[in-house]
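From the methods appendix. Each design record in this collection lists the tokenized structure first, followed by the designed amino acid sequence. Records were kept in a plain field format so they could be parsed without special tools. The example shown here is representative of the layout used throughout.

RECORD:
FOLD TOKENS (442 positions):
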């Protein structure tokens, strides 16, 4: 056993001398080989225990990290404007980072089509020796071989493969755009939830003080508001993608949506929304072409050199010495659909495509109807808000004739604003849906 390990180390030294660039990889491989010869195989027997140990270590580390994470109220506060919050969230939001990674992966798949045509080079070192003579290994006992391989597989299918890869990139980018719109929509809803919650808390605080003076009722307004504010802030932290900061968006910078622009935009469906629908149809069409491509003959070409460079027993040779070492393999195969399996799948794909085209049309009509209902809801709500505010201003302007009438008027105004803020909170879903549909129009 020691003799074999010693030979492995000698082998590593000789290879490193001939090819220093692989010395590190060779050393690591030999360490693993020696460990296996000395009993490292025991690790395989304990693999189950090792997995449990590694997972438990991860659990312990996560628990320790969570224990060190400060409470929400202990985080450093940072006040940002609306524009700053949007800019930061679009860069650091984790969902958006994953979507951008999908775009990069899709782009890599496009370049991979051409990278796969780059020739590969194999470096081999071979030692064959009697075990009794392992201690006397020299450089002449080791054979070195360097081969190069050009591989051009399925040339007839490259156009379809390339187009499919480009379509995947396009879809990933449009999905990213839609995800960015979603984050802005959620930010808008979140900051308005905070503002309306604060206004509702102000009214609840006033009512609680009146009740406490009248019958001594203990108020829970502070506790309720803190719980609500904590939930809104936690969601904002997740949107911003940074849990180490207590984020606060300056309510004075909240944008006002332009309903006139939304009314103009709602006359037709948004281009991004239609693009996402069209991509479903295009994916189906690509599936049909992928099935059709199986009828085409498959043409493969590869070039290889068995001996780009060789060294055996002190004798050198290779492609640089004799061009006859270069070989070309070409294959043209045509698989006939004798079982009609490809035909059946093609017919099914075509029928499915026709159904999908109708489904997408129905979806577009349904979406247009929903947009119309959203706009009607917004118009009705805007009219109601205008009435409530005018009514509240009118009640406030009435000169009370008694203390009881004054209190009654103030109570009526509080109830109107309480209802106003509650309905505005519900209406945020409509506003967020419109932002998702057409983006933030100011």
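DESIGN:
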């Amino acid at each position: 056993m020691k003799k074999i390990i010693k030979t492995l180390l000698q082998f590593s030294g000789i290879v490193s001398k001939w090819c220093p660039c692989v010395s590190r990889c060779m050393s690591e491989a030999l360490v693993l080989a020696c460990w296996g010869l000395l009993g490292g195989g025991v690790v395989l027997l304990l693999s189950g225990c090792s997995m449990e140990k590694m997972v438990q270590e991860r659990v312990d580390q996560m628990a320790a990290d969570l224990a060190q994470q400060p409470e929400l109220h202990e985080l450093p506060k940072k006040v940002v404007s609306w524009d700053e919050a949007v800019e930061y969230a679009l860069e650091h939001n984790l969902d958006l980072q994953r979507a951008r990674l999908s775009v990069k992966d899709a782009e890599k798949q496009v370049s991979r089509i051409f990278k796969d045509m780059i020739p590969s080079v194999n470096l081999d070192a071979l030692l064959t020796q009697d075990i009794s003579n392992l201690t006397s290994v020299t450089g002449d006992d080791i054979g070195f071989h360097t081969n190069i391989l050009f591989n051009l597989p399925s040339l007839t299918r490259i156009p379809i493969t390339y187009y499919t890869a480009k379509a995947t990139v396009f879809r990933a980018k449009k999905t990213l755009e839609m995800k960015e719109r979603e984050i802005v929509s959620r930010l808008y809803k979140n900051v308005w939830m905070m503002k309306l919650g604060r206004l509702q808390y102000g009214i609840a605080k006033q009512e609680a003080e009146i009740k406490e003076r009248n019958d001594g009722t203990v108020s829970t307004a502070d506790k309720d508001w803190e719980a609500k504010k904590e939930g809104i802030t936690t969601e904002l932290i997740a949107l911003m993608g940074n849990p180490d900061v207590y984020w606060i968006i300056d309510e004075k910078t909240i944008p006002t949506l332009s309903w006139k622009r939304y009314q103009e935009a709602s006359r037709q469906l948004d281009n991004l929304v239609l693009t996402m629908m069209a991509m479903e149809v295009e994916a189906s069409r690509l599936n049909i072409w992928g099935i059709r491509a199986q009828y085409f003959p498959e043409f493969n070409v590869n070039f290889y050199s068995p001996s780009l460079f060789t060294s055996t027993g002190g004798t050198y040779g290779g492609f640089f010495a004799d061009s006859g070492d270069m070989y070309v393999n070409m294959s043209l195969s045509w698989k006939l659909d004798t079982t009609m399996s490809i035909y059946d799948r093609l017919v099914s794909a075509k029928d499915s495509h026709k159904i999908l085209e109708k489904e997408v049309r129905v979806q577009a009509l349904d979406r247009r109807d929903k947009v119309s209902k959203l706009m009607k809801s917004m118009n009705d709500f805007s009219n109601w808000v205008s009435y409530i505010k005018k009514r509240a201003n009118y009640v406030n302007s009435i000169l009370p004739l008694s203390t009881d009438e004054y209190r009654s008027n103030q109570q009526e105004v509080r109830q109107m604003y309480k209802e106003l803020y509650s309905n505005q909170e519900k209406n945020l879903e409509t506003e967020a849906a419109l932002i998702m549909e057409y983006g933030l129009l100011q």
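APPENDIX NOTE: The first strand starts at residue 77 and ends at 80.
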